[in-house]
Amino acid sequence: MAATGPGPRRVGFVGAGRMAGAIAQGLIRAGKVEAQHILASAPTDKNLCHFQALGCRTTHSNQEVLQSCLLVIFATKPHILPAVLAEVAPVVTAEHILVSVAAGVSLSTLEELLPPHTRVLRVLPNLPCMVQEGAIVMTRGRHVGSSETKLLQHLLEACGRCEEVPEAYIDIHTGLSGSGVAFVCTFSEALAEGAVKMGMPSGLAHRIAAQTLLGTAKMLLHEGQHPAQLRSDVCTPGGTTIYGLHALERGGLRAATMSAVEAATCRAKELSRN
């Protein structure tokens, strides 16, 4: 089966850390790739055991992954990636589709480190990919067509929502969705602690706060509503919600959140330049 068909027969991972494992698990659970058709490489057995537990094949040879798989996801640390690409470059062919999840390594850099006309894409997932509810963006290199993009998007939707974006949006996605996981956790924690202050047991409060975030997110996505519309639907004149919203506005929640995304995005851009 060709790599640009409905689905690749084999998918390779160079690097076997937490994000690589999350993507592999999503592919397997969704039935998009069989476990025995996934091959992962890493220098030691430390992380490979997670792939082995899923029923995947493993190796210590990065070149073997390229020789066995046409679609290969590079999930190494960014500072290691150039050396890894130099190592595998001799076995890269025109049939390969190479995908980098390394933050801060641009498409132009990837294309410079690989043979001419190599098909390269960048993907930026976030931590909820581990529970198949990730927010993922991808951007294509100069030699990638729509069929390769659709194939990768089809596969990554096993791990959550996947959108194709211009490369300029990658750092913004880091600030919004990568770092945003921590921002949402902070809000969820504060929401629950408000309930604890009013007398609810901590465990129960945290469970209800998390479920409230989950349910609200699902409504926004399924209904396609602007958040302001849903917020308005919850507010009744003189009711509890408008009093609570007034307290949030007084505390500067909206401005603080916008500033947090801005700060995280600026830091991502700074790290990318370095």
From TrEMBL:
EC number(s) stated in the UniProt entry for this protein: 1.5.1.2
UniProt pathway annotation: Amino-acid biosynthesis; L-proline biosynthesis; L-proline from L-glutamate 5-semialdehyde: step 1/1
Signal peptide interval: none
Coiled-coil stretches noted in the UniProt entry, renumbered to this chain: none
Domain Pyrroline-5-carboxylate reductase catalytic N-terminal: 10-104
Listed PANTHER family: PYRROLINE-5-CARBOXYLATE REDUCTASE, PYRROLINE-5-CARBOXYLATE REDUCTASE 3
Name the record gives this protein: Pyrroline-5-carboxylate reductase
Gene this protein is translated from: PYCR3
